[in-house]
Amino acid sequence: MSPHNDAPSPAGSFTHGFNNMTFRPAASSVLRTSSHLHSIYAESTLNDSQYSSSYSSTSLDADDHMIRPLVQGVYVPTVCFFDPLSEDLDTATIASHAVRLAKAGVTGLTTQGSNGEAVHLTHSERQTVTATTRSALTSAGFSHIPILVGCGAQSVRETVQFCREAYSSGGDYALVLPPSYYASLFSPNAASVIEFFTTVADQSPIPLIIYNYPGAVAGMDLSSDIIIRLSKHPNIAGVKLTCGNTGKLNRIAAATKSPVAEVPSSDIISSPPFLVLAGSADFTLQALIAGGHGILAGLANISPKACIEVIKLYNQGKISQAQEMQEIVARGDWTAIQGGIVGTKAGLEAWFGYGGFGRSPLPKPTSEEEGKWKEGFRELVTLEKSL
Description:
Helix 1 packs across helix 2, helix 5 (224-231) packs parallel to helix 6 and helix 9 packs across helix 10 (367-386). Helices cover 38% and strands 9% of the residues. Strand 4 (173-176), helix 4 (191-203) and strand 5 (208-212) form a beta-alpha-beta unit. Strands 7-6-5-4-3-2-1-8 form an 8-stranded parallel sheet. It is of the alpha/beta class. It contains 10 helices and 8 strands.
């Protein structure tokens, strides 16, 4: 839901020269396909005992680790809720919000994204949020819904740690940003980035979703070539493109699609070999036309039914109606983009009676801002409540 850039990836920015590279998975991986002896990330085998965890896989029900395929539709990076005074996690609202989205018909949920204020949470709090979400979905009869968990970190070691903690808490897929803090020191021609994703994928107990969000990683914009290359890894299952580049999305979708043509259907059920998602609701229809499989968009916290309806109309061949609805969704998303998580929470509070505030140092909105964001979402919420 954050601002995205529709411009092509800048020349030379992790784009060229990697086509002759081969994957070098970790030696400890059950997925390895070649030797990793010369990896710049080679290290001793990691084990679960090295990580502190509030949740153990032995404490989860069998259903918490059932196979949940990624299918076409709307995925929601859920908002994280806090007590307005103590800023402690509000697990009751986290649970009820997840169930509200599930009842609306969304395809999947994501915890620990930017909308979930992952950067404000400790490791144990992240696990609590994911475990609470999984438990709420299962208790409400939605155990089939997959949970993607934000697991990005600056090192391979901590990223793998996040992936393992996500799995132990009931997560199904790991949404991973490329590391960026030391990007200026990385090996040329994207070698370090490819090595990072390959090594994490080799060691993660759950499949990865590549997260291409230049605004969160110092402008690093992964090219379609890199993402297509990484899509061949058996433990990398998809990509979220918040860069807003529909040309890139089209190239990736075309290169990774099944040899058998996928025919859209009104029930939105399709399991592609590599899931390609738009990272913002304001280009849902454009992404579908380009061959994408849906969205992973923060706006769906406010308007899940409207986002779903755009896809349904497209799949039914009702393009004019889908375009009209997309216009409303895009206008609502512009409010969300401008307000960020502060504005989204204000919108939830104004229209649905819950939302609260972000953790410090995020500011509390002024009365003027609350009014502006409420009004900005009015048209969208009116549509949402009519569906």
